[in-house]
Amino acid sequence: MPVVNVNWWKGAGEPERRQLVSELTETVSRLAKCPPEAVTVLISDVEKDHWGIGGKLAADL
Amino acid sequence: MPVVNVNWWKGAGEPERRQLVSELTETVSRLAKCPPEAVTVLISDVEKDHWGIGGKLAADL
Amino acid sequence: MPVVNVNWWKGAGEPERRQLVSELTETVSRLAKCPPEAVTVLISDVEKDHWGIGGKLAADL
Amino acid sequence: MPVVNVNWWKGAGEPERRQLVSELTETVSRLAKCPPEAVTVLISDVEKDHWGIGGKLAADL
Amino acid sequence: MPVVNVNWWKGAGEPERRQLVSELTETVSRLAKCPPEAVTVLISDVEKDHWGIGGKLAADL
Amino acid sequence: MPVVNVNWWKGAGEPERRQLVSELTETVSRLAKCPPEAVTVLISDVEKDHWGIGGKLAADL
């Protein structure tokens, strides 16, 4: 049932995504009291020149 | 008015997206009682190594 | 696998939501070539005074 | 930097949300190699009659 | 065409939302080179006990 | 604190994104009464053949 969207800067590789899915699913399924199979995790790699912080593009920081 | 976001695995082609937009718009505009022109559909193709199910990357299943 | 988010104005009742989920799931599972059980639909009812169109709150239109 | 959206069924209380934020932030900041202060977590409690699975409202299952 | 989602803490009133929609629409339509009528803005008021920063619920800060 | 997602058609360049982040952040931080540093803006460039309006792909219009 739970759907988790992760938006982070482009740069992490497949091993990090694999670990992210594993750990987030364990946490969410435990706290939502649902089986891990019910948990969906969507990962979006965002370029720093498409991400703004404090009024600036992260690429410019 | 309605905004529909579809996240699905990368793989469907333009014909499927065209059909998806056509059918989703018909359904949503009918049930929302609004003109089809008011319906926006955004489609995100997600790589299987950016999608987690049951604690695993879909690419690993 | 597919995750569909529908944002529309608050007002539709449970019968419309039931119909929306049924039809959207049929369409998406057919076009994504996945079983209906894999399709998640999230529906957000949005108040008109939290929705902007053409620079105005929908509530003011 | 990372922004995590969690959509799950309404029902978890504040203690679970507190734990969710704590654990998700630790995992994401470690894997994104960014400070915990940079991680934002947004939690949406969704009613079962606004959530579709396999073509049905979760409330009907 | 552009769809803008704003998630912020619950607390702003309708006047602020009206102003937000007006200014965001003007900026986005100018930069996207599209008419203001094409711009949709969705505003989500999020409770502080559903928002995590730095591993803590904003309500606890 | 505020998180703003902008979905628009692919085509704007970095200068427009820079301007978008600058202006959106100023508006949102003023109206949310929070420092600009607290505002995150995520920009998604969407291909016209992944965007539906009025039942058609924007690429077909």
Automatic annotation (TrEMBL), chains A, B, C, D, E, F:
GO terms for molecular function: isomerase activity. It comes from the Bacteria. Residues 2-59 form the 4-oxalocrotonate tautomerase-like domain. Keywords: Isomerase. The active site is at 2 (proton acceptor). Its EC number is 5.3.2.-. Belongs to the 4-oxalocrotonate tautomerase family. NCBIfam families: taut (TIGR00013). PANTHER family: 2-HYDROXYMUCONATE TAUTOMERASE, TAUTOMERASE-RELATED. This is Tautomerase. It comes from Amycolatopsis xylanica.
